[in-house]
Amino acid sequence: MSAAVLQACGIGASYGTRRRPVTALHPTDFTLLAGESVAVIGRSGAGKSTLAEIVLGLRTASTGHVMVHGQRFCGAGRTPDQDHRRLVQGIPQDAGASLPPRTPVRASIERALTKLRVDGDHAARILAAAETASLDPALLERTPRQLSGGQAQRAAIARAVAVGPDVIVADEPTSALDSATSASLADALLALPSRTGGALLLVTHDDALAARCDRILTVRDGTVEQTR
Ligand SMILES: Nc1ncnc2c1ncn2[C@@H]1O[C@H](COP(=O)(O)OP(=O)(O)OP(=O)(O)O)[C@@H](O)[C@H]1O
After folding, report:
1. What is the pLDDT of residues 10-21, one digit of tens each?
2. Which GO terms describe its molecular function (predicted)?
């Protein structure tokens, strides 16, 4: 059996004021194993992005904590340490959210590697990540504005992979693409766990895409159920 790479232990989130909190995510537990893909589905407003943002360490949980390889990654009132940020990386709905639009992709990835204190040969890492993301390496010299939507999403995948995370969280990464581009990007995404040895948490409204994942977490009104 594969090892647990990420454990969510009672993570929950609320908005509003301390006196009048509104629960967006009830305390929830789940585990991601090495090499597996897990879909997160549910209606609009159910709490999927809230869940994804907590796992990414972008949003502070109001309860619980997240462990990566048995070490505390983030928790209630606590964001990840700079040294740990690289462990979980995101692919957003729109690549523009992770890549500056006017900077060549290679330079943006290089900057991320430096900021996250990733050791080793950065050029080799970037090339290998482009290959994993099925991104033509020539496109690394272009800015996101000079790429199609699908190419820009592959560049965002390459950025996440180059960092060498244990977990990749993708929040509706195909929703802005046409169906053919979306299908080929889905193939690249679903190949990530076996190519990187890490886990993929994939938020999606696409039931067919979710069905291709190893497991499915369904969020209903802030409550997470494991439905497969
Ligand atoms: N910053 C915020 N302040 C107040 N309420 C918020 C905030 N962010 C999210 N919410 C609320 O929390 C709930 C969950 O939102 P979330 O974005 O996680 O849903 P979602 O399932 O990702 O929806 P969608 O599929 O439409 O992206 C919603 O009711 C939303 O209105």
Report:
1. 999 999 888 888
2. ATP binding; ATP hydrolysis activity
Q: Is 46 in the pocket of ligand 1 (CB under 6 A)?
A: yes
146, 140 contact by CB (below 8 A):
no
Average pLDDT, the chain: 93
Kindly state if the Cβ of 42 falls inside 6 Å of ligand 1.
yes
In whole angstroms, what separates CA 147 from the centre of its chain? Answer: 21
Contacts of 152 (CB under 8 A, 6+ apart): 95, 96, 99, 144
Say what the ipTM of the complex is. 0.94
Residue 175 CA to residue 184 CA, distance in Å, equals 13
What global pTM score does this model have?
Answer: 0.93
Query: Any bridge partners for residue 170, and if so which?
Result: 91, 202
Q: What DSSP string runs through 20-36?
A: SEEEEEEEEEEEEETT-
Distance CA 204, CA 33 (A): 19
Nearest-atom number in ligand 1 for the CA of 50 is 18
- CA-to-CA distance for 176 and 143, rounded, in angstroms? 19
